[in-house]
Amino acid sequence: MRILLLGLSLLFSSFTFAQATDDNEIWIDQVGDTLTLYIDQIGFGNKIGADDFSGSADYMDITGASLTFDLDFIGNQNLLFGALVADSSSYTINFTGDSNELDWSIGSTGSADSSNYNIAVTGDSNTWDIDQGSAASAERLDLDLALIGNSNIFDLDFEADDATWNFDITGDSNNINTLQNDGADAEITFVLVGDSADIDINQISGTCASQTTGCSTPSGIIDMEVDSDNATIQINQKDSANDS
Questions:
Q1: End-to-end Cα spacing for the chain
Q2: Residue 3 DSSP one-character state
Q3: From CA 219, how far away is CA 138, in angstroms rounded?
Q4: Per-residue pLDDT of the chain in tens (244 residues, 90 and over written 9)
Q5: Closest by CA position to 114, among listed 185, 181, 65, 45
């Protein structure tokens, strides 16, 4: 594994802990394989990476393969923003608290194959935006999300082949928008318990080889269990190379 500086200077280069009056901040600029990263942030107004993708971002640029992330956040109004390029990597993410924000761009400049996500969120009014595979290869993706809380907004877009993910949502007034694009053997298992949800599922499984006789691949499967009043659910499922 190659990091910007080795030894004790690692704390001040690849992993820079910036000083702030009220907040904890972690800046990361890392290049190399087989990184295992454990972070626990507890408190109010913590941050990993930049404020957002619009301007004066600092770090959270990670490039490598066989990366393992174990990130735990406990508190309110915490931020995680950044860009990753990672093959054969796993992400365990736990958020407990309200009004937290996560914005991750994975594979924006390189491939992001063989990704495994385990995400648990407990809290209200959280905002998540994950985009993976928009610029390069993103094959074999497995995602598990357990969400308990109200008024959360999740926008999860994965342009990945052989993608499977499971959503388990408990709470009211949650807004989930997910895209499963350009892949064979796409599968979503979705459980919703809660009222007034707004759910959009786009499963675009690639171009069918034959438009007259049918085809066995690509295939898309959506398995849903819903216990809800006043929910709005829109599903777009089609064989097409284009987004809906």
A1: 41
A2: -
A3: 17
A4: 433 333 323 333 344 434 433 467 888 888 999 999 999 999 888 888 776 655 454 667 788 899 999 999 999 998 888 888 888 999 999 999 999 999 888 887 778 888 899 999 999 999 999 888 766 667 788 999 999 999 999 998 887 777 888 999 999 999 999 887 765 677 889 999 999 999 999 887 655 544 445 555 557 889 999 999 999 999 988 765 544 4
A5: 65
Q: What secondary structure letter does DSSP report for 13?
A: T
Handedness of CA 43, 48, 54, 56 (dihedral sign): positive
Tokens of 55: 């301007």
One DSSP character per residue, 40-56 reads: EEESSS-EEE-S-SSS-
Find out whether 119 and 144 touch, Cβ atoms under 8 Å: yes
Q: Give pairs for 174-180: CB < 8 Å, separation 24+.
A: 174/147, 174/149, 174/150, 174/198, 175/199, 176/200, 178/154, 178/202, 179/204, 179/243, 180/204, 180/205, 180/220
Amino acid type, 165: W
